[in-house]
Amino acid sequence: MDLIDEAYARAVEALGRCCTPAGLNASGRKHGHHQVWARDSMITLLGARFVENTVIRGALRASIELLASHQAASGAIPNNVDAASRKPNFRAYADGGLWWIIGSSLFAPAPETARSILAWYACQDVDQSGLLSMQEGADWQDLFCTRGKGLYLNCLYVLALRAAAKILPAESGRLTALAESVAEKINRWFWYHGDGNMLPLHSHTFSTESRRELDSLGRKRFLPPKRHLVGEQYYLPYLGFRAVGEWFDSLGNLLAILSGAASPQQSGIILDFITRHGLDQRPLVSLTPAVRSSDPDWRDYYGTLNIPHHYHNGGIWPFIGGFYVAALVRMGRMDAAGAALQRLAAMNLEGEFNEWHHGKTGEALGVRDQAWSAGMFIYAAECVRRGRVE
Question: Is pTM, for the whole model, over 0.85?
């Protein structure tokens, strides 16, 4: 059995340990995350749906149903539901509903629930810019400073709108047009051109929107200087109030490729950036450069978990590595995709499908049998085997 086949078989075993009558727990060991998470279960579903196993498929379906049964009156889908108590949690609320639409559309479409979720997301366009906004720590990086208009969140919005268009045929034209509009705005606002000019990235936060350095009263606008990755081109991770994130957000940039928001040229720039900065030596480091205590985006609540090269702050996340392989396949870089898949298989076998690894040493530091680490390896392997992104 070669490395890929062995990792695939072990991934299926890991997923089996995550299955419960309530749905798919985020982790499958005694010590781990014993909740059905919207993002975790639906990301896992991307790969797990290819596995012909009645227990796993039953857990995927149960996850979709459990999350929908706890939908708020507003339309919001919970971040997670405790598998034992069945109590929902809505704190890190931003992305769960979008992942629910994507996952359910592939496995058990529920058009009316998807419609009500999208109505709630329409209310998250708080400034009528066409882009979604979120509070700090409300997406998958639920212990991090991403806030305002998040790149990851809005690329995910594009994917969810396109998924909904397929299961809501009467609204397909409107939803497809909305997806294209969001993608255009992502390119207008988030793409940094490597020229040091921060004005276009901040002008949307001025009370009177303008791309001029002086306001209507002749006062100089506040523009923080670009301090990191000054000469690079990439999508910025968030746009906040007179502040932007400067690091390279791996998952957000990969979803820009996979959602079609990024042009082929931009996609090539992103993938070349990842290789040039060595983010894929163990696929894939979540961000670079790591946020340090001297940076504006440092927070005291990071404690000891989000220190540089740990957890959200530049740790290696195998599930993101799965998206990296898929992005390489989408762009036709099959040799690179195969090599990245080999490295991902080795890391997953060594860490037993760990949640996350140290960003420099590769040491496994999370919990084992993490469902999305296993599910996204299967997804990556299927993309490489089929030669296309499913």
Answer: yes
Q: How confident is the model at residue 210 (pLDDT cuts 50, 70, 90)?
A: low
The reported pLDDT for the residue numbered 85 is 93
Nearest-CA neighbor of 86 among 124, 36, 126? 36
Q: What is the pLDDT of residues 308-332, one digit of tens each?
A: 999 999 999 999 999 999 999 999 9
Contact predicate 234/241, CB 8 Å: no
* Contacts (Cβ under 8 Å, ≥6 apart) of 6: 345, 349
Give SS3 for 52. Answer: coil
263 CB neighbour count, 10 Å cutoff: 13
DSSP labels, 171-214:
GHHHHHHHHHHHHHHHHHHTEE-SS---HHHHGGGSSS--SSSB
Element (H, E) at 36: strand 35-37
Structural domain boundaries of the chain? 3-207+220-386
3-state SS of 121-160?
HHCCCCCCCCCCCECCCCCCCCCCCCCEEEHHHHHHHHHH
pLDDT for 1 beyond 70? no
**Is the CB of residue 178 less than 8 Å from the CB of residue 121?**
no
The CA distance from 319 to 302, in Å, is 22
> Cβ contacts of residue 346 below 8 Å, gap of 6+?
3, 7
Task: Provide the Cα torsion 355, 360, 362, 364; round to 10°.
Answer: -40
Q: Which CATH number fits domain 3-207+220-386: 3.30.60.50, 3.90.1230.10, 1.10.260.40, 1.50.10.10?
A: 1.50.10.10
Between the alpha carbon of residue 73 and those of residues 78, 79, 91, the distances in Å are: 11, 15, 16
Measured between alpha carbons, how far is 42 from 48 in angstroms, rounded to an integer? 9
CB 24 within 8 A of CB 36: yes
- Full DSSP string of 68-104: HHT--TTSPPPSEEETTT--EE-SS-TTHHHHHHHHH
Mean pLDDT, rounded, for 147-168: 98
